[in-house]
Amino acid sequence: MNVFQMKTKPHGIQRFKQFIEEGFVCIGWPGIGDLHGIDKDEIKQRLIKRYGYTGHELGYALGQVNAFVNTMQDGDIVIIKEKGWAYIGIVGEYVYEQQYDNDQDGMCHRRKVEWKNRILINELPTSLQKLLNNRNTISQYPNLLEETELDEILGKKQLIKKEEIEMLDNLFTEALAVLEEELKSIDPDRKLKAAIELIRLKNSKL
């Protein structure tokens, strides 16, 4: 079992909520077709043909697509992050969804995910925090799985619910509106209290 971090903006479109609510992750690079059973060399040729990549740009895209399609396996662990939290799940097999193979959606290369838990990023081992800071679309944890302490995290009660995400969005919308008004105050104490209250609200509802 391997561990991977993934970003939540495939093809330049933010899909964090969709990943959590619909139980999947995906990468971009539409237009290169179904990659079931396709090796790294064939992926390379398809990327060149579709995107005209060369040099470093080709190397990066090839590494990302191949990692998602061929290196990642059914049963591996994936971690995504949002607002200081790490969301941890178990991935399924690679799936090609032809209806999303276009520049508008750009999410045809997918894997189902069973989201198991979430944890504050600053409570993760330093090595996993470093992994989450990697800028690549997908990157693999290079150390032993035992060093991650993920067995304990995955064994805890599932915490992620769609209703919680919707509630959080609504709360932040209201809180930000109040904060905007308070920050207009000439009283520095009111400004400070507004900022502190927003932070408290975030920590209590996440």
TrEMBL record:
Protein name: Uncharacterized protein
Organism annotation: Caloramator proteoclasticus DSM 10124
